[in-house]
Sequence to fold (345 residues):
Amino acid sequence: MNSFASHFQHLPDSVDPAQVPQRKLATGASMPAVGLGTFGSDHVSPQTVADTVYDAVRSGYRHIDCASVYGNEAEIGGSFAKLFAEGLRREELWVTSKVWNNCHDDVVGSCQRSLADLHLDYLDLYLVHWPFPNHHPTGCDVSARNPHAVPYVHENYMRTWRQMEELLDRGLVRHIGTSNMTIPKLDLLLRDARIQPSVNEMELHPHFQQPELFAYLKKRGIEPIGYSPIGSPARPERDRTPEDTSPADDPVIRAIAEQHGVHPAVICVQWAVQRGQTPIPFSTKRRNYLANLSASIADPLSGTEMQAIARIDRNCRLIKGQVFLWKDNQSWEDLWDVNGVVTPA
Fold:
């Protein structure tokens, strides 16, 4: 029997949401194991993203990853309102948003603005987008620097986290989490938090598998959500460097895709789901986002195929975050604590 809710009209070739794998969070809640990202990479209009969200939900998506800084939550909220009017129940949808770097001192206000824009009474998940209060103008290039930028200061981050905990206390969100964190920073947060993060959102794809951080999160019951799961081919120019590689162009991925008769990007998504992370790919092309969701219910990759993909990790971070650096002549590695300790000022 088709498990679609009878009162909500899906498109004919949709994926049954009940068939999509779920991640069981430490709270006991279930989160769909594939989501739709909504960052338009500075070149996709807010309404186009909103139209994509509307169509994607009618195609079976139930996990939508938003953020205030993406500049499209009001338009996405219009799509949500339309979907609810058409019979979708709020509890059928998992919606994430994030507090941007310039609102670390006003987390409650930021969350309330996102709720109003998204036409929601609560968020399923709210994240601290970056661990730094450093922000940049929309559409800036890689050389942009905020003159008020500062390094990670744990006391300041904990002030932000206490406000995140308040959101839970007030019922504005169901879960809170981190994003773009490192093990040294998470060690400090887990030591001091009253309410621990349910997830950490991070870059994850076959060329950047982050095995140490992945294992760290899994051991502590924190779900890894993976952005750029196919290598973010449409990312802004500021996030491109000559040494970047493309996982979807890797010969191993392409050979497996040929065996399965799918696009290489689909194998990247399928690998992510099967490995145990939650990918949130973004596309405005229906054939692509439907294929990404369908990957979660496809016949599994073989153990040999999974092992082959594990061996192509190149430690190739694509979203380096240079615009968040706090002093001249720094390397982007300073943001990521590559020496195993929080990078000092």
Remarks:
- Residues 1-6 have pLDDT under 50 and may be disordered.
- The domain at 20-336 is CATH 3.20.20.100 (TIM Barrel).
